[in-house]
Amino acid sequence: MKLLRSIESAFPIIEWGRTYSKQMFAEDGVAAVIVTIMLIPQSLAYAMLAGLPPEVGLYASILPLILYAVFGTSRTLAVGPVAVVSLMTATATAAIAAPGTIGYLETAIALAFLSGLFLLFMGVFRLGFIANFLSHPVISGFITASGLLIAFSQLKHILGVQTTGHTLPEQTVSMVSQLDLVNIPTVIIGSASIVLLFSIRNYMKAALIKAGLGARAADLVVKAGPIMVVVLTTVSTYFFGLADKGVTIVGAVPTGLPGLSVPGISFDLAADLAAAALLISLIGFVESVSVAQTLAAKRRQRIRPNQELVALGASNIASAVSGGYPVTGGFARSVVNFDAGAVTPAAGALTAIGIALATLFLTPLLYFLPKATLAATIIIAVLTLVKVEPIIATWRYSKRDFSAMAATILLTLLVGVEAGIAAGVILSFVLFMHRTTIPHFAIVGLVPGTEHFRNVLRHDVETADNLLTIRIDESLYFANMRFLEDKIYDLALGCPKIRHVVLMCPAVNNIDASALEGLEAMNHRLQDAGITMHLSEVKGPVMDRLQTTSFLDDLTGDVFLSQYQAWKMLANPAK
Amino acid sequence: MKLLRSIESAFPIIEWGRTYSKQMFAEDGVAAVIVTIMLIPQSLAYAMLAGLPPEVGLYASILPLILYAVFGTSRTLAVGPVAVVSLMTATATAAIAAPGTIGYLETAIALAFLSGLFLLFMGVFRLGFIANFLSHPVISGFITASGLLIAFSQLKHILGVQTTGHTLPEQTVSMVSQLDLVNIPTVIIGSASIVLLFSIRNYMKAALIKAGLGARAADLVVKAGPIMVVVLTTVSTYFFGLADKGVTIVGAVPTGLPGLSVPGISFDLAADLAAAALLISLIGFVESVSVAQTLAAKRRQRIRPNQELVALGASNIASAVSGGYPVTGGFARSVVNFDAGAVTPAAGALTAIGIALATLFLTPLLYFLPKATLAATIIIAVLTLVKVEPIIATWRYSKRDFSAMAATILLTLLVGVEAGIAAGVILSFVLFMHRTTIPHFAIVGLVPGTEHFRNVLRHDVETADNLLTIRIDESLYFANMRFLEDKIYDLALGCPKIRHVVLMCPAVNNIDASALEGLEAMNHRLQDAGITMHLSEVKGPVMDRLQTTSFLDDLTGDVFLSQYQAWKMLANPAK
């Protein structure tokens, strides 16, 4: 029974598959058609963004979707190539191999494989908590900076020039130096695509409804917008012979499904790609789970983050095995899938069939597709990633968080994606570590006429010259104990009249071995200085553990049940 | 005035120097003589342990002591070469250069320089908190393992063989393979030294007092024990011509003070040594501050840890500049200094003069000193580092802490000092990070007949089907927010009857930008699931900051002053 339940929990498909019906199949089918139409140009475009041949984007949209359907806990997440991960793939891969070579493709495939292994490992060992150390400001800063970087990197395709470099300054210099090589037909195709895509996305729906179309039909037309622009520009390029006038086209795309093979990865390559693979895994996971949770809540469904790691791991390994590159759950695509009425992950599997059919039959039609059109698709898609409002909100709310965010944005733009995210994480970490080393505590005194004790800085309370009472508001452990020790030595040894130190522990849930040694040392050192150390209001479980040690025997003072008892016994309020 | 105070705080010598008297000078002088007598053989021995010529140990005991006297906040800490740091120096240096070469000496000097820079940097930027991440179990395990490793490494000098390797297995294999080369005269000298040193340390004092000597005089004789053994074995070696019979002797030690020069360190060398230098700095600092605090408390004096970083940094740079190797505050030596009546750091400066005189006039007398005697001095000194009791105590108190300790001990012995300490720190860190990602919280219910709310798991309380109340016992920030979110989705979305979630926040002192976004997302997602989110008992300062955001406007529910008000308003106790 228990085994059965854990098998079910490892294969969520068993749960929803059991009650799958024709009705659900019909709903999933409709969603799959809509997502497929949206995914074809996106797959091609994101593969181009990653510096890879267009078919690699299609391959990454077949097998991974089927694996996610088997392992994923989200009913509506749409997995596949996404913009930010494509950018990260381009950066990491270009550091190892020259774009356009076989080595480049092999490196990107290895990256998907490694990042799949990382995800799987984290899922199996329940290490998803590692992703918690990517704070919101760091992620949000990173996504915004990536959006800008991606949009800017696509300008070269719109202008028809060849730029080099990954950072904003490198790309700008390279672009400016080639302004005289701009190809006018390419600029026309590119700009027209941008204007069309932008108009369809923002004005088409209202216009169609005004013209008498139903809201749902109008919606469908809007979603087919990118594929219409693809068709339009491809046909124009063919008819006007624009390829001969300098417009770069996609060219021959191999027909047929990808072959399956486990990529061979040398230890050196794995070592070189490890950091990038880990970052891609974490960023992909965080973004994907966030989308999945947002959509799941709308239908009161639940997401299991550790199982999501397994599902994304399996998807990435599947992508690598079938000649694809790193994938994750995409935001826009998942929302479309959800809105189109997908009820189970079967919609994803059906989408995979749609893409497989496209790979089998449609690729010859892509020959004259201009790269400028794909670039326009990317630009319109990623501009939604760039958000100024969270930057302002973070600045207003917390300067500490803002500094981590600003470091992430600036370094991502100026040095690169990995440097940006590393700077943000390290800065959050240092700020966080610094804070964890300072435990919350307060010197307290008696509220006159009561048995309550409050912070001497905030309340008008009675204190005694011979008695120092510290209320500790947190568990004590290796990282924060030394700060407390130093503070108490400062306070107690600095005032010659003090004879007793009472540690009031109502909020101490745990004392680790380091903190215990710290307390023991403090007891001895205070004793050497002629000061007695007491405890008060120690919680039951903490007291139980202390009783297994010799600490309570060595304690120079007493353990009081209430701070008021300690006060009555020890205080000498005469000033 | 403020400037003056900060100058005084940077140069503690100004404070104690102002009231320095003849009486204090006399007391410091006596202590200095005793420490000098103890330090001469120790300096030679620890230099040998570090694989360096004996004079390097003396050089490291002159200038560093003077710099510490200027910058240190401890009145009685005795700085100089110590066993554990010597071992770490040997390991780090041997990884770069072959022992006995000029390159080896230059590398050890560079290590002192780098570790001085690290300490100074941490002191100036008040980064001493970094050392808090070395937990007690890791440090104590590391010291014990180092003691064993050091004692074992000296056996070769007692046996008169040449072994290679740094780890316990390497050394054992190497020693066993050379057992037929053991030199009998060396074994006799070495064993006799060990027996003598051990007897003097443990039995001499009682015997002398029994024989009618005063306790203080007896104590002095015991402290002079190592130097007496040095004289005895040196004289024996000379008279019996043992050097010709295979006893390895110290040989010619250069006479005169060291020349001063800033060591030239290439960027490559600095990069290779950085990790080792950082570890040496941190271990040295932690041990030194611990000794300093123990002694300071006995006289109700105060230690400023960040200033100690500066003082130890200056001492190490001084050591490097004067041809010495890494130094720190030594435990045994500082206790002797304290017991001998040192009242100010001037005692350290006077000790430096004593060692300088020895360097000028005594080095020719060291020619026939057998290395086996120095090895015996080291073995007797480091065996006090090996403590089994803390290992047992940690095992009893916390399995989590014990696992970090055991990893440190095993890896230090089997792989090396750096691997050992790294494993311990990483393991403590992972355990710590994992814990920080899980905030303390409890589902609470109403204690019948009161207005109090308590944990439903521990108390018999009233709950309501339509209401989930979570008491959060900790501040919310990026590392722990996601866990809370996931938990609440699990709890709230899993029970179809729940209509309200109340977050009870009496212990939430801070909400960072990530946690705020988490709360916002939770509010929206619960809303999508038809659940209203409320807060109760929010602290004043937290409320003030929330009011600067749009969170409270968007909140689907209310903010209640007390949880009881929330209960009266929302609960539907009919089951």
Provide a descriptive summary of the structure in words:
The structure is a homodimer of 575-residue chains. The first copy, chain A, is mainly α. Chain A folds into 2 domains: 24-426, no CATH class; 441-570, 2-Layer Sandwich (Transcription Regulator spoIIAA). In chain A, 63% of the residues lie in helices and 5% in strands. Chain A is built from 25 helices and 8 strands. Chain A has helices spanning 2-10, 12-18, 22-49, 54-59, 63-71, 83-94, 102-124, 136-159, 168-176, 184-210, 215-223, 225-239, 267-298, 305-321, 331-339, 346-361, 371-382, 389-397, 399-414, 417-436, 478-494, 513-528, 540-546, 551-554, 563-570; strands at residues 79-80, 328-329, 441-446, 453-455, 467-472, 500-504, 532-536, 559-560. In chain A, the strands form 2 sheets. Chain A has a 6-stranded mixed β-sheet. In chain A, strands 1-2 form a two-stranded antiparallel ribbon. In chain A, strand 6 (500-504), helix 22 (513-528) and strand 7 form a beta-alpha-beta unit. The radius of gyration of chain A is 31 Å and the shape is elongated. Chain A starts with a helix and ends in a 5-residue tail after the last helix. At the A-B interface, helix 8, helix 13, helix 18, helix 19 and helix 20 of A face helix 8, helix 13, helix 18, helix 19 and helix 20 of B.
